[in-house]
Amino acid sequence: MDVLISGAGVAGPALAYWLRHHGFTPTVVERASRMRTGGSGVGFRGEALDVLDRMALLERAHALNTHPGDARDGGPCALEILRGDLIGLLYEATRREVEYVLGDSIATLEQDTDGVRVTFERGRPRRFDLVAGADGLHSRTRSQVFGPRERFVRHLGLYTAAFGLSSQRDTGLFHSMPGKAADLLRARDDGEARAVLHFASGSLTYDRDDVAQHKRIVAERFAGEGGRIPHLLEEMSRAEDFFFDVNAQVEMDRWSSGRVVLLGDAGYCAAPASGHGASQALIGAYILAGELAVADGDHTLAFAAYEREMRGFVAEHQQLGREGADRFFLGAPIREAPDTTAAEATLARIVRLRNYVSSPAAT
Ligand SMILES: Cc1cc2nc3c(=O)[nH]c(=O)nc-3n(C[C@H](O)[C@H](O)[C@H](O)COP(=O)(O)OP(=O)(O)OC[C@H]3O[C@@H](n4cnc5c(N)ncnc54)[C@H](O)[C@@H]3O)c2cc1C
Predict the structure, then answer these.
(1) Least confident segment among 55-69, 105-119, 141-155, 316-330
(2) Which domains does the chain have, with CATH numbers?
């Protein structure tokens, strides 16, 4: 079966990996002209570590751990790596066996009884058996198939920016100002460092593709602040791997419609404040591909099972995302990892990784 995946962030390449593993033929289309490796650290724990292990990526991921001293299996910081390092690992694990189409995106989708006809912004039209939207919080697949974003996206009143720093000077510092915070993080032993800035705000209107405008918005918010902030803003103006987005959650009653299914932030974004976006994306990809395999490609059965497996897990993660954003507004020190022990125990009960094999008889 040919499966088109829109988006080469975390969820897209992970789904491609598992689909390939189960004998499907995935194609990934990514709007950006190269893999987008920006962003700060993403954390893994519990079952997400297990998925990395099953992909034979856990050892390499541990070698890239931004907090090697903190690595306590099952603890709040069992593994954290730069988002770009994770994208690199996933791409490397898939690129030889998966067709990646960079610099293009889906223009239209038309479903019929035995497939989906897809036209692209640039490439020629093609037919696929299934389409998976892994195109992030602002998913176009979602708006094309399920309805306008306003119906599903809930703004948490917080914006986050992340960018690379030219040195590790002052890393470990955390500036907290009313309605704003800046965190300077040592990212790797090789000199890598990142700044992560947050500010509270109602919904802002801006062009999502205009990075210069994003930088201006952040600079205006932090203008006039002292300490290391002026230096940070100067670094930001030069930064190439700049990430800026709203903290928002995606709430949907269904993640599939016919032959189109959503995963990762496109279907159930928990917001950066959850600290779980990448884990959700990895686990969602594993379960979606696995359910398709055990259902022998019967997408109706598989998508229903995927929803059943993921719902409780996503609800818990979204709760963590809302609590993370609330902590910011209460002025609690957001860089201190919250005590998530109880939540971890609940999450561990909610999602279970089955050993998916491609024949229903074998499960
Ligand atoms: C550049 C970048 C930096 C990030 N940095 C952070 C961070 O510092 N902290 C944090 O908590 N979260 C960050 N995130 C979000 C985080 O990666 C996700 O919450 C999480 O990993 C879930 O991954 P995802 O694959 O569902 O979505 P994403 O990682 O957002 O990936 C979605 C992908 O889809 C692509 N895409 C979008 N629209 C289209 C389209 N129409 N056609 C084709 N492709 C499309 C995007 O370019 C992107 O590559 C970042 C996301 C991006 C894209």
Answers:
(1) 316-330
(2) 2-151+251-362 (3.50.50.60), 158-247 (3.30.9.30)
